[in-house]
Amino acid sequence: MRETPAPPESSNGCPSGPAKPLEPYVTLDRAHWSSLAAQRGDTLDADTVERLRGINDPTGLAEVREVYWPLTELIQLFMTRTADLYRASHAFLRVDERKTPFVIGIAGSVAAGKSTTARLLCELLRRGHDNPRVDLVPTDGFLYPNAALAAVGLMGRKGFPESYDRSALLRFVMDVKSGKPEVRAPVYSHMAYDIVPGEQVVVRQPDILILEGLNVLHPPRLHPDGTTGPVVSDFFDFSVYVDADARDVRRWYIDRFLTLRQTAFQDPHSYFERYAGLTTAQAKAVAGDIWDTINGPNLALNIQPTRERATLILRKGDNHQVDAVRMRKI
User: Mean pLDDT throughout 205-230?
Assistant: First the structure.
């Protein structure tokens, strides 16, 4: 009679079972993730959450408590360990340099909720035990002005990597990270759908800088000679990608467009004022076409491929709420 081979043993003498495939991320469900947050009495109030969340974004107090507090505490842990490494390495090198800002990148699709994530993190991190100075800068300000985009035929690719002044964005992050006393960034108006001439946001040596945008995790470009240069993500200490199924994001985008048609688009100064008079059916068709020709392809070609470069991925379900978190293994 043939014997069945015994299962392989682990190093402690116990059967190890089938080997699990190795992955660079550990995945935690919502229940596990929410259990990681310490009990806090200073959570945000409903009015503050309402002010910080985006249009049609259902984020509420439960989402803040169960998703964003654990994320805030994890980032604070990274900040502490990064500061420890900074002090130890500079002591070893026998140099005395000013501590540089902790830089966080927030990436994701149009309408996925990355702006809400960035604003919530900004507010929560400011409430840390030492009340750090936190600045939030959207990368929309580094889009080329509409006139410049139109001159080279790129208005139909606004939001694609080539529509940004990537050199200016890189200089901005490098200057902030190097501790420059004052760094300025252009300002973008969603109402005008363009850069605001002469207007700037000023960053003065913050403890934390949050940089939010579609392409902040984009990898370096390969030059004709085979070399690459630095990119903004090289200077990130932590990064978050807000993820969701593309079909859900398309639906959220159309829903947001319908809401804007009845609100911001009604303003005669709005770039999109011409859409204010559309019927619901017409507005859905226009929004769907914009998604299918611009935002959808940009997501598929340029944004989603950068997801695995993030430190942490917030995965949203079809209800626009986070149902799982993927964390890169240390």
Answer: 91
